[in-house]
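Posting this for the archive.
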Amino acid sequence: HVQLVESGGGSVQAGGSLRLSCVASYATYLPYCVGWFRQAPGKEREGVAIFYRGGGRTTYADSVKGRFTISGDNEKNIVYLQMDSLKPEDTAMYYCVLEPPPCYGRDIRDYSYSGQGTQVTVS
């Protein structure tokens, strides 16, 4: 049973920073894919960032490039999303998601496992 537990959300003023964390209960030896998508009220889900444990590669949505950084601690099965220069349009519920291998190239919005989400509010 895969569990994803997010933390680190909150409220911040525009220009500020937050760091989200996600602890995954999954086999540490497997090259799974893990990342974040977000959803704001009345809007569709948007993939934010992906961390490919198989080689450490990362991808980002254009809307967050240069401001957000995803990273992973493979030994502890934790993935982080460092969010800097936050904007009001970043306000959303952020979900940590995981897809078992093979997963490269798969749309993050279709990943098999998701956490409960953590709210990020930027004013």
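The chain has a mean pLDDT of 93. The radius of gyration is 13 Å.
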